[in-house]
Design goal:
Radius of gyration: 17 Å
Strand order of the largest sheet: 1-2-4-3-5-6-7-8
Structural class: alpha/beta
Number of strands: 8
Shape: globular
Strand content: 15-25%
Largest sheet: 8 strands, mixed
Length: about 250
């Protein structure tokens, strides 16, 4: 199903030579965490760190890493919960919410840094982050966290302050990479005002960016509801690939 939907923006490269493996990485603070890497045999030099939604290292994101690799982009998806849940494989019944509540922006960025370092050690010259919901917000924050990114993409991420913690809107002046925001017009929590404020903050900071809102699409339209929102999903996938190509 994922192959069919993502392929609609441009056919999946059938027969493309790729490899994949499960990893255990270590962040600068000593945290060990699980990750999944997909690598093309004929890499372009552009690479992707995938920041997942609140479920952690879920199969959808492993499949997404493979789809990026089919395009020639090495990709790594990583788990947020090494500090509280360890590195072992977990089932779909995993109670992720208590672990989400224990994450910190600093911890997430330490893990992103380890993923970026791994990709660069394996020949990547342009590293992008692509994140979803919780990961969308943290993808944009990665561009303000000293990783030397070529660009940061976020799907339906909250750009505003949350629980007293500054968001990408408040930290726009710290962002050091182009931004692509793919927002859900029917999101119950992220409003048009949130998106407009993010757009304005990025413009004021001189950050190259585009904020796209898909009218009528709900949060998670790309990862949970691709069939129902196929047009928005296909357009978003096309924009992600074009963004990576144009900034590599």
């Amino acid at each position: 199903m994922l192959r069919a939907r993502l392929g609609a923006a441009g056919p999946a490269i059938s027969g493309a030579a790729i490899s994949h493996k499960e990893l255990e990485l270590e962040a600068a603070d000593g945290n060990r965490f699980a990750a999944f890497a997909a690598e093309p045999d004929d890499p372009t030099g552009a690479c992707v760190v995938i920041l997942l939604d609140v479920r952690g290292l879920y199969r959808f994101y492993e499949e997404l890493a493979l789809r990026f690799a089919e395009r020639g982009y090495a990709a790594i998806a990583f788990d947020y919960f090494g500090r509280t849940a360890g590195v072992a494989k977990r089932g779909e019944d995993f109670e992720y919410r208590p672990h989400v509540d224990q994450t910190t922006p600093q911890g997430v960025q330490a893990d992103v840094g380890a993923c970026v370092a791994w990709l660069r050690e394996h020949g990547c010259t342009s590293v992008f982050t692509v994140g979803f919901c919780f990961g969308g917000r943290n993808s944009w924050l990665a561009a303000a966290s000293g990783h030397g990114l070529a660009g940061a993409v976020g799907f339906y991420g909250m750009p505003a302050e949350r629980n007293g913690v500054p968001g990408p809107t408040q930290r726009a002046a710290e962002i050091r990479a182009p931004i692509l925001a793919l927002q859900a017009g029917a999101d119950q929590n992220i409003t048009a005002e949130h998106n407009a404020a993010f757009d304005e903050a990025l413009a004021a900071a001189g950050v190259e960016h585009e904020v796209v809102t898909y009218r009528g699409a709900p949060n998670s339209f790309f990862d949970h509801k691709q069939d129902e929102f196929a047009e928005a999903s296909d357009d978003a996938w096309r924009r992600v690939l074009e963004f990576i190509d144009s900034h590599s």
